[in-house]
Automatic annotation (TrEMBL):
<feature type="transmembrane region" description="Helical">
    <location>
        <begin position="771"/>
        <end position="797"/>
    </location>
</feature>
<feature type="transmembrane region" description="Helical">
    <location>
        <begin position="406"/>
        <end position="430"/>
    </location>
</feature>
<dbReference type="Pfam" id="PF01496">
    <property type="entry name" value="V_ATPase_I"/>
</dbReference>
<comment type="similarity">
    <text>Belongs to the V-ATPase 116 kDa subunit family.</text>
</comment>
<feature type="coiled-coil region">
    <location>
        <begin position="90"/>
        <end position="128"/>
    </location>
</feature>
<keyword id="KW-0812">Transmembrane</keyword>
<keyword id="KW-0375">Hydrogen ion transport</keyword>
<feature type="transmembrane region" description="Helical">
    <location>
        <begin position="545"/>
        <end position="566"/>
    </location>
</feature>
<feature type="transmembrane region" description="Helical">
    <location>
        <begin position="640"/>
        <end position="663"/>
    </location>
</feature>
<dbReference type="InterPro" id="IPR026028">
    <property type="entry name" value="V-type_ATPase_116kDa_su_euka"/>
</dbReference>
<protein>
    <recommendedName>
        <fullName>V-type proton ATPase subunit a</fullName>
    </recommendedName>
</protein>
<dbReference type="GO" id="GO:0016020">
    <property type="term" value="C:membrane"/>
</dbReference>
<dbReference type="GO" id="GO:1902600">
    <property type="term" value="P:proton transmembrane transport"/>
</dbReference>
<dbReference type="InterPro" id="IPR002490">
    <property type="entry name" value="V-ATPase_116kDa_su"/>
</dbReference>
<keyword id="KW-0406">Ion transport</keyword>
<feature type="transmembrane region" description="Helical">
    <location>
        <begin position="578"/>
        <end position="601"/>
    </location>
</feature>
<comment type="function">
    <text>Essential component of the vacuolar proton pump (V-ATPase), a multimeric enzyme that catalyzes the translocation of protons across the membranes. Required for assembly and activity of the V-ATPase.</text>
</comment>
Amino acid sequence: MGSLFRSEEVCLAQLFLQSASAYSCVSELGERGLLEFRDLNPKVSAFQRRFVGEVRRCEEMEKTFTFLQQELRDAGRVLGPCPESPRAPLAREALRVQEQSEQLAQELREVSRNRASLRGRLRELRQYLHVLREGQRFTSLPAPLGSPPRPRALSEREPILDPSLHQHLDRKINFVVGVIHPWRVSAFERLLWRACRGYLVASFVEMPEPMEDPATGESITWVIFLISYWGEQIGQKIRKISDCFHCQVYPYPESEASRADTMSGLHSQIQDLSVVLEETEQYLAQVLDKVVLALPTWRVQVQKMKAIYLVLNQCSFDVTEKCLIAEVWCPVRDLTQVQDALRQGSYKSGSSVECFVQRIPTSESPPTLIRTNKFTAGFQSIVDAYGVASYQEVNPAPYAIITFPFIFAIMFGDVGHGLLMFLFALWMVLYENSPSLRQASNEIWLTFFEGRYLILLMGAFSIYTGFIYNECFSKATVIFPSAWSVATMANHSSWSSDYLATHPSLTLDPNVTGVFQGPYPFGIDPIWSLATNHLNFLNSFKMKMSVVLGIVHMGFGIMLGIFNHVHFRQRHRLVLEFLPEMVFLLALFGYLVFLIFYKWIKFSAADSMVAPSILIHFIDMFLFTSNAGNLPLYRGQVPVQTALVVLALASVPVLLLGTPLYLCCRRRARRTGGPALAAVGEQEPLLEGQEAGNSVNATKEDVESGGHSPDAEHLDFAEIFMHQAIHTIEYCLGCVSNTASYLRLWALSLAHAQLSEVLWTMVMRNGFVGLSYVGGVVLVPVFAAFAVLTVAILLVMEGLSAFLHALRLHWVEFQNKFYVGAGYKLCPFAFAPDASE
């Protein structure tokens, strides 16, 4: 079988790598992604391994790259993906990358530090200039005539003191000026008033332009304060309070001339600093341009380099310490590619001795490798969510490609809803290479996108089952003429005007010639959508259909178990497990399917009134009795049913005791040296013609056990019997419960149809209130509400419900008949497509 139907053959192999070429060989293997390396030093800590120094050097470079990326983010630059996937750097290239990255990081630190210093100095100069300007207005302008005296001017332009009063003052007035954060103004003012009441006059005014806050980086409007006071002690208090509130205090010249000179000097300094800052910004932009060009490639190279050394840390050295030995799980079909990769790596490193690969035997269960593509990946993910297939076990995924969408469509059957789902999935499929769809950050959207082919098939199958049910947004479509003739019934009956007036519902009798002209060509006849017994008819049809499909689905799962028994050479299970399981299922529930089809074929509309009940017959079958009021379907029905029940019950002890007794007899024959029985069911070793014990981790007991024995884990008879007893009880009870579980197909299909009909009746039909212009205007919002509710309830909610029920039917009712799912995936060492992620 191919890889999709069964996992590929995987072998354990050893790689012999020369020390000089080991790095290049592992790099080449990482580019191809063929092998899964095993750790040969599990008890050695990460800090004691051979290449821990190289790993630390890679981590130091990653820290440098993180700093560079943070600087780019602070500068508003976006670091794009690596244009091409570079190979892992050699030792000389790695040193060059480390040197250049550290040099760029040092330049960025110095330039950023200088820029921050220049910005801070420029901000202080501008604040000082605004403070002097505002102080000039406070202390130099004359007060307007007739203005009332103000002890404190808050955010105003009037001078604090009248200049004419200075000559009458005996004491000198001093000033404290600066800027303060606007959030601290009220508390600062209250504390000043309480600490220095009567000895100061404080004025506050907002700065004309906003400036950056050095603590947060936000642009805020600072508040300028000017405080006049008398006495040196008061001045010390004011300065201490200003320091507590983190105010920026500036010196304030006493004379107006010195203030003008200071302002002139500030103007020139600001201009000079602006020129220097602009040049610094340009140089910083040049350095950042270099980082943007080089950093994506460097990150990918260092990530690959680190991954290679982590793999080399898992290898062990030989006694001469000139050769590294690695153990890998490798697909058998890729061994030639592995050897070619080793040859390429040896050639690139310049080594004169080629590295090579050698298969070795092992008793461990290899990992599971199932190759998928973009179409099968979604279905394989559904199976793997239940459990990864055991090594070379039958894979349910290729069968789920058909059965899963079909079972979903049975519960979701509607032409309109299926078409919407199909078109949505088709849009994702057609634009699957679009970066905007692939690189979306929404996890729910990515889930839909990864399962686009699954949704596509679910929509297509829903369209098919919708034609079977003859439902399109809950309305029937007349593709073919109806097989029922109302005119013929009217001609052969006494339907008078008075009869039609008193009977709103009329009965069509198929026994009247010409009323029923035969089966509808495809699906259900549209006339059933007008019938009052429409729901009763669909319930009977869908319930029996669910039982039939469920038993066929479970039987197919049991049949797939044959491939496992044959492949693993457990042929005794064909007789002792598969045969009694099929007998039990077919003798009871296969017979129920036979009764359903037999009743459909034998009884027609003419004798439908005397048709017996299948349910009563099935109950009487288990009670070994017959019901006189329920006529038999065929002659000799009771003895046949009795024989089938006895046959089903007789298969239970075979299923319960067959395998344990066989294994017990086989073990006893091995102990007594019986070669005939010992050879039965033996599993071939993984390798032939090679000496055992070549594995570094293989023990003597592993080698002597001789490969994969299918029954090696069941060493105790009691354990074997308990395992088989649990399997028997689970299977016998599961046949009953699983058959009933498939009735969810009927229930979900009925619920979907009824919800669709309710939505049409209560919403859409209200839009057809009239054929006037008003009716057309009303139809627009009604249709919008109908569309939103259809997508939200019937497509999303009902679709998710049907998906979960179909998932349960595959996991529990189908896969447990043959699928163990106790394996683990092969995780090959491969470099990620974008190592920066």
